[in-house]
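Our collaborator T.R. sent over the components below with a one-line note: 'Predict the complex.' Nothing else. No constraints on interfaces, no templates requested, no preferences about which chain binds where. So this is a plain run: every listed entity goes in together, and whatever single assembly comes back becomes the starting point for the next discussion.
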Amino acid sequence: MPQVTEEIPHPAREQLELSAVLHALSEPVRLDMVARLAACELDDEPTCGSFDVAVTKSTCTHHFKVLREAGVIRQRQRGTARLNTLRRDDLEARFPGLLDAVLRSAVVHG
Amino acid sequence: MPQVTEEIPHPAREQLELSAVLHALSEPVRLDMVARLAACELDDEPTCGSFDVAVTKSTCTHHFKVLREAGVIRQRQRGTARLNTLRRDDLEARFPGLLDAVLRSAVVHG
DNA sequence: GCACTCGTACGATGGTTGTCGTACAAGCGA
DNA sequence: TCGCTTGTACGACAACCATCGTACGAGTGC
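Returned assembly:
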């Protein structure tokens, strides 16, 4: 049977919008998620539950959805778990230097 | 008598918050304002009215206020006019590379 | 003085959003 | 099989926000 790895909708690289990305990153909880994701090894794909954020599960789902729809992260399903990765390459291609600048600032100040 | 140039409240450099800056820049109208401001000569200080944006005066005032309170721009009064400048140095000091990355992306894609 | 311009302040309004609780679907493991 | 875990979906709710119109205060120029 076919492996179900990508039934979750994601915007294509060319469709990424600066406003949406900035808006997604302007939320402290989401920025925290992205910073943690960025701190992971390249081949590591943490699940949603592995993020120890100060909100409930449903709020967490909401934030991941915002990040995914803005094109900041990519999600794929494995069993009941949902694996998350930063879309570094796509972001870098569309908005060179942006993610690095945000992450550097986010890490330095709280 | 003292010249009244700075009775308008601005956050200090150390008080600038990444979330607030990203949020301010995530609005297309405001991003447009900032991009125009960035395109000005260094010694040029355009007034609020010189921005040909697609919103009414009061909405314009609102957006300038958001940008000012986030620390993205500085405003000073001269007569009835209000002169605007980008806080390039402060932004660069707190969030190195961020403004440039945003502006570069904003200019490239509409 | 008087009209005009610049920009703010205030209130209203409709849309967006961050948060949560509950219910549910799907896989994992004993 | 029977829980347990993962995460989503949906509804609710309060807070926020972008927008506008109107009214106003303060300079500017005739």
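Summary for T.R.: The mean pLDDT of chain A is 91.
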